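sanity check this record:
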Amino acid sequence: MSKGELQQLEEKMKKTVDLLVKEYATMRAGRATPALLEKVFVDYYGTPTPVNQLATISVPEPRLLVVQPWDKNILPQVEKAILKSDLGVNPVSDGNVIRISIPPLTQEKRKELVKVIGRKAEEARVAIRNLRREWNDKVKSSEKKGEISEDEARRKLEDIQKLTDKYIKKIDQVLAAKEKEIMEL
């Protein structure tokens, strides 16, 4: 396993963590963020289009999102798409912009969200471990075929384990930060 292959493995592990971070950003944690609307699609002339490609989304206050569609004619469709989403918010339109007040989370909802993000973090850890197993198998296979020495194989396995530990730790840090954000009152 060359340096390039190790970089390839690290890139895959990094993508796993990045995906987790992106997924966490779209989860409602009692605070307004434009990322909340990333999964909301509007039927724009027959094409499902993300809200953030049709409007400017701003956060004037910690619990308020303001959506300003560039085409005023699609305001009703945007409002309907937000209502149909699983965000559990009520958009209010004044004809020009849509205001979305993000209600504070109940303690019960916070605990439920912490469980959900914990499951997502565990899925990411499993993905990292699967990558480790896949690459360990490649190294062991190369060793059996006589392509690399036993010492070289041991070094490569150690490198793979170091990368695994590094990215599992990053997942734990991302999880802790999101838990803290959710549990803040």
Summary: The radius of gyration is 22 Å. The mean pLDDT is 87. The longest strand covers residues 55-61.
